[in-house]
């Protein structure tokens, strides 16, 4: 039996911000930005100079003493963790049928992403590249100047 749908092009008016729509837009925009950030990150850590063999405390201290890499890493950290956690939230919404379990997973996802964002940001902005008393062979070259 055929069923008529009244005004099929219209939806009931909803009040407030459409968070699912903004979440959808965030995933597309951050996905494009992350392609640039991740490949820039891999290129600078693996391809330039001695590549992966150059990575030690001095290398990380040298990078994180430059505002450019601080901003790059901050964007990479925040965008990737929010992108990953929100993507997992969508998977939980799609596949976890028990409401209590779904809620628990989403709270855990939020807490783990928030903790990693806080800890990572703390490291990026507080790392001391030239700790007092460190072996000069292990720190960035500018520490010994
Ligand atoms: C073989 C692959 C990788 C290597 C060798 C590597 C190496 C490193 C190194 C040495 C650092 C500290 C210095 C710096 O900022 O560059 C770092 C930091 C970081 N990496 Fe990677 N990485 C790799 C892949 C990735 C991927 C795929 C992602 C994200 C999708 C990522 C995200 C980050 C973030 C967010 C930081 C900053 C962490 C912080 O201090 O808060 N890395 N990585």
TrEMBL record:
<keyword id="KW-0349">Heme</keyword>
<dbReference type="InterPro" id="IPR000701">
    <property type="entry name" value="SuccDH_FuR_B_TM-su"/>
</dbReference>
<feature type="transmembrane region" description="Helical">
    <location>
        <begin position="68"/>
        <end position="86"/>
    </location>
</feature>
<dbReference type="GO" id="GO:0016020">
    <property type="term" value="C:membrane"/>
</dbReference>
<feature type="transmembrane region" description="Helical">
    <location>
        <begin position="107"/>
        <end position="127"/>
    </location>
</feature>
<keyword id="KW-0472">Membrane</keyword>
<feature type="transmembrane region" description="Helical">
    <location>
        <begin position="25"/>
        <end position="48"/>
    </location>
</feature>
<protein>
    <submittedName>
        <fullName>Succinate dehydrogenase hydrophobic membrane anchor subunit</fullName>
    </submittedName>
</protein>
<keyword id="KW-1133">Transmembrane helix</keyword>
<dbReference type="GO" id="GO:0046872">
    <property type="term" value="F:metal ion binding"/>
</dbReference>
<keyword id="KW-0408">Iron</keyword>
<keyword id="KW-0479">Metal-binding</keyword>
<dbReference type="InterPro" id="IPR034804">
    <property type="entry name" value="SQR/QFR_C/D"/>
</dbReference>
<keyword id="KW-0812">Transmembrane</keyword>
<dbReference type="Pfam" id="PF01127">
    <property type="entry name" value="Sdh_cyt"/>
</dbReference>
């Amino acid at each position: 039996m055929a069923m008529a749908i009244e005004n099929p092009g219209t939806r009931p008016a909803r009040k407030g911000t459409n968070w699912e729509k903004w979440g959808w837009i965030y995933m597309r925009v951050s996905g494009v930005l992350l392609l640039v950030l991740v490949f820039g990150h891999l290129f600078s850590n693996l391809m330039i100079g001695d590549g992966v063999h150059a990575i030690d405390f001095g290398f990380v201290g040298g990078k994180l003493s430059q505002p450019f890499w601080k901003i790059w890493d901050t964007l990479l950290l925040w965008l990737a963790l929010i992108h990953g956690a929100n993507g997992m939230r969508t998977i939980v919404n799609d596949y976890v049928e028990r409401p209590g379990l779904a809620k628990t997973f989403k709270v855990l996802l939020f807490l783990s992403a928030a903790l990693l964002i806080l800890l990572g940001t703390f490291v990026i902005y507080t790392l001391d590249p030239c700790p007092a008393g460190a072996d000069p062979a292990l720190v960035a070259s500018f520490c010994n100047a």
